[in-house]
């Protein structure tokens, strides 16, 4: 099965987590796909260009992913240093969550560094749903159509799309990858709306997240 399509027990926990953290996306999800795919990198230790705009005041965690996990972030710089910092830390939250899944550790420090409030707990539940069935992600995850809206000096929203066609669940007991196609091909594309705030370390932490699988705004 494609990633984020876990068996019923795990899917229930994931759905509950998303309901706890749901937030309205407003107008920040109306960007259009450029149609270009950025080159994939493996792990957050090879940071993409937006990371240069992020605050260096905090000692950010580093993530070393296995060779079978990679990313393609089609998130070009905006030219605005604040928006670029939001993009960079939003990207690191995605990787931090995945890293905890790879490490099979629901309490891994990385995602806690990039989240605050209720989202920290719901992210832990989501990671635990993978650990429960002894599975992790594999493949290349593509993210695109990122749009940042600033609301004051320390708050922002970030909307983006995910293309899950090349990322799957790897079951650790059998070392087998589930590549079962989704019944509805549109469900390979997911829209995310997130809220972020800048903490006292200068890190843009994600505080709320809402997802919409199969969103028309993310279709190719």
Structure notes:
There is one protein chain. This protein is an alpha+beta fold. Helices cover 25% and strands 26% of the residues. It has four helices and seven strands; from the N terminus they run αβαααββββββ. Strands 1, 2, 3, 4, 5, 6 and 7 form a seven-stranded mixed beta sheet that branches. A hairpin with a 4-residue loop joins strand 2 and strand 3. The longest helix has 22 residues, at 81-102.
Radius of gyration: 16 Å
Strand count, sense and barrel status of the largest sheet are:
7 strands, mixed
* End-to-end CA span: 21 Å
What is the ordering of alpha helices and beta strands?
Answer: HEHHHEEEEEE
- Please state the average pLDDT score: 81
* Helix content percent band: 25-40%
Flag low-confidence runs.
6-55
User: What is the strand tally?
Assistant: 7
Proportion of residues in β-strands: 25-35%
* Category by helix and strand content: alpha+beta
- C-alpha geometry: globular
Number of helices: 4
Condensed summary:
The protein is of the alpha+beta class and 220 residues long.
């Amino acid at each position: 099965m494609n990633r984020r399509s876990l068996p019923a027990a795990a899917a229930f926990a994931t759905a509950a987590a998303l309901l706890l953290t749901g937030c309205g996306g407003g107008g920040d999800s109306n960007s259009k796909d450029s149609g270009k795919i950025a080159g994939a990198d493996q792990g957050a230790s090879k940071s993409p260009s937006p990371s240069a705009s992020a605050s260096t005041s905090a000692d950010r965690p580093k993530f070393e992913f296995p060779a079978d996990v990679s990313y393609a972030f089609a998130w070009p710089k905006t030219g605005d240093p604040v928006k670029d910092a939001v993009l960079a830390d939003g990207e690191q939250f995605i990787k931090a969550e995945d890293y905890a899944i790879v490490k099979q550790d629901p309490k891994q420090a990385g995602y806690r560094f990039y989240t605050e409030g209720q989202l920290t707990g719901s992210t832990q539940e989501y990671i635990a749903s993978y650990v429960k069935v002894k599975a992790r992600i594999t493949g290349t995850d593509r993210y695109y159509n990122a749009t940042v809206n600033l609301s004051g000096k320390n708050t922002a929203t970030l909307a983006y799309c995910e293309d899950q066609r090349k990322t799957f669940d790897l079951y650790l007991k059998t070392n087998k990858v589930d590549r079962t196609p989704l019944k509805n091909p549109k469900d390979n594309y997911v829209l995310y709306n997130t809220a972020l705030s800048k903490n006292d370390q200068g890190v843009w932490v994600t505080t709320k997240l809402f997802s919409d699988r199969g969103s028309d705004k993310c279709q190719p």
